[in-house]
Amino acid sequence: MAKVILTPNQTPTLFLEAENITPDVFAGKDAAEIAALHGFVGKTTVTLGDYFTIEGAGGQTAADTTVVINGDVSRVKYIGMKMSAGELIVNGNADMYVGGWMTGGKITVNGDIEAFAGLGMTGGELIVNGNAGNYLGAAYRGDWRGMQGGEIRVSGNAGSDVGTFMRGGTIVVGGNIDVHVGTHMEGGTIIVKGDAKTRVGGQMVKGTIYVYGDIDVMMPGFQYRNDSDLEVDGDKGRFALYEGDMGERHPKKKGEVIYGQLYMKY
Amino acid sequence: MAKIVTDVVCPFCGTLCDDLEVALSDDGKEILEVYNACAIGATKFLHSQASDRLTRPQKKQEDGSWKEVTYDEAADYTAKMLVDAKKPLMYGWSSTSCSAQGVGAEIGEEVGACMDNTATVCHGSTLIAVQDVGVPSATLGEIANRADRVVFWGCNPAHAHPRHMSRYSIFPRGFFTGKGSKSRQMIVVDPRNTDTAKMADVHLQLEQGHDYELLSAIRVAIRGEKLPDVVAGISKEQIYEVADTLKSGRFAVIFFGMGVTHSLGKNHNIDIAISVTRDLNDYTKAAIVPMRGHYNVTGSGQVWGWQFGFPFCLDLTRGFARYNPGDSSSNDLLVRDELDAVFVLGSDPGAHFPVRSVKKIAQLPSVCIDPHITPTSAVSKMHVPVAFVGVEVGGCAYRMDNVPIETKKVVEPPEGMLTDEEFLQLVLNRVRELKGAA
């Protein structure tokens, strides 16, 4: 598998917008061609070569291209946006929109990321060995389609508005989570292994949320159903099932109303 | 004998009262009295008459003192700042006319600016919610004539929109509301016992920051589902009662303000309030109207809506409009050090933004266009005073219910003063010269 290594050689004074940093764009290009790819700082057009030292070359296709960023890119937006295949590894922190609208491949960030990561993603894997910001796996403003497929794993904490308008796929948060989890959710699974604050599953139509820790304030539209022993993401335990949001519309399947499901671990 | 100008439109808040009468001196040059206006509106008219008013642009010197410059010099400085910057912010736009906002939009497009209006710290969250779930709304005229269930959620019109209740929402005797306030049930939802709450038939004094839960509970109650005993500090009996009151009305309206748009949850609070309104429409007619603050913040959203497709938080740096509050919103841009110049017109971020944002404005090249001396003008490098829109020049403004109203010129501005539209035109011409396109 061909490998491209990007080492940041300067921090942008404003922010660098670099949606070209994906295996899809790098495939079939050598180091010089990759260095000549454009990015934006405000209204000026720059090249990736202005901000990164580039070694290696892309493979024949995105699927056989691995991109490694060695260093802090916390002032670089849109890394891995719309990628469809291959692998992208960030050894450092990254800014907003990591893996936004990605359809396939794998992104690993060994550091923290900012908001809007995995926005509207339909496939692939986004692994964050650190903390994530707000709007993880959510929908873009005004869109009713949040994350629709694939998997997001965050080892640390996540911010607010995780999985807003989510319709498919899985989000696993190892730590705690801020307010508004799975708002307007219509499918998919969110697993929170730490504590949640308030507003979990508000306006939820379908889908499943697991919370291992506490929820500060439960939404009034959730009703207790039963207890069951489950294995969730490799963890066995006894869970209480709540269904809701009773204030929201719900579809019927084979004559039965389908609710959103919220499991709380004992 | 004083000359009376009638049917004057008040350029203060989003209520945009259009029944003011202004008494002028015999020569028609000075405003003596303002009738029918609230205390805030009258003060705005009278303040334009202040003898110590700034009438020429001034530039801040190295030692912090101000030096008077001409409008041409000010336009040149502004144009150069905007053209040289990689990512300038053009903020404000809410206390000016739609035509001035239009010229501002042209400048923003020429220089590739980030453009934002005061909705960003006000009803921007409402705009986000409207994009997410739509909005069933109505004009204030329809509400005055029909609404018999009026909810004020997280707003205090008794102080913030003083004539709202008397002109539109509570007291007017309309076609189907002939008994005035007696034809209406007034519900106020506010953690504080405000002067508006004191007038209410029902005051839901909820726990602060739990509006989302209470709105959700009302949706559950409207559908007749089970509720916990207490939600947000309100008993379930009272929630069922309020849901029944709203359902039994002929026309329910929810007005809401900063108490929900900028408390925990922001756009989600409005999103679910809109959902309550939508649910009520299964039983009766219901509408929801934001209590917009500045008199033409609604218009600025309208102008950008038809120019760029988005009502606020515009990022034009790439030559086309991008939009994502949280990324392209002015406070995020300022706090995250994403900008290298700030232009402010018709707003006072110095007074309304968090202090860490204001500090950034003070550190950057900055221009403030405002008739008054404000905290923003104090931290800016250039201050350009202009004529008062709605007092010294007319122009279109949009009321909180999206009804356009043409404001009226009442007196002449001080000799030699430009309007903001004229100054913006100077800046636009200079920008085009600098870019070699003129």
UniProtKB/TrEMBL annotation, chain A:
Sorted alphabetically, which Gene3D superfamilies does this protein's record hold?
Glutamate synthase, alpha subunit, C-terminal domain
Supply the name of the protein: formylmethanofuran dehydrogenase
Q: Species lineage, top-down? A: Archaea, Methanobacteriati, Methanobacteriota, Stenosarchaea group, Methanomicrobia
GO MF terms held by the record: formylmethanofuran dehydrogenase activity; transition metal ion binding
- Pathway(s) where this gene product acts: One-carbon metabolism; methanogenesis from CO(2); 5,10-methenyl-5,6,7,8-tetrahydromethanopterin from CO(2): step 1/3
Keyword Oxidoreductase (UniProt) = yes
Protein origin, superkingdom: Archaea
Which key words are in the record?
A: Oxidoreductase
Question: Which EC number(s) does UniProt give?
Answer: 1.2.7.12
Q: Which GO terms describe its biological process?
A: methanogenesis
Q: Which reaction does it catalyse?
A: N-formylmethanofuran + 2 oxidized [2Fe-2S]-[ferredoxin] + H2O = methanofuran + 2 reduced [2Fe-2S]-[ferredoxin] + CO2 + H(+)
TrEMBL record, chain B:
Q: Which InterPro entries does the protein's record reference?
A: Formylmethanofuran_DH_bsu, Mopterin_OxRdtase, Prok_molybdopt-oxidoreductase
- Keywords for this protein: Oxidoreductase
Any one GO CC term of this protein is: membrane
CDD domains for this protein? MopB_FmdB-FwdB (cd02761)
Q: Where are its TM segments located?
A: none
Which Gene Ontology BP terms does the record give?
methanogenesis; respiratory electron transport chain
Q: In this record, what's one Pfam family?
A: Molybdopterin
Top-level taxon of origin: Archaea
Q: Where does the Molybdopterin oxidoreductase domain start and stop, copy by copy?
A: 53-282
Picking any one GO molecular function of the record gives: NADH dehydrogenase activity
Query: What's the Enzyme Commission number for this chain?
Result: 1.2.7.12
Q: Do you know which PANTHER family this protein is assigned to?
A: FORMATE DEHYDROGENASE H, RESPIRATORY NITRATE REDUCTASE
Protein name per the record: Formylmethanofuran dehydrogenase subunit B
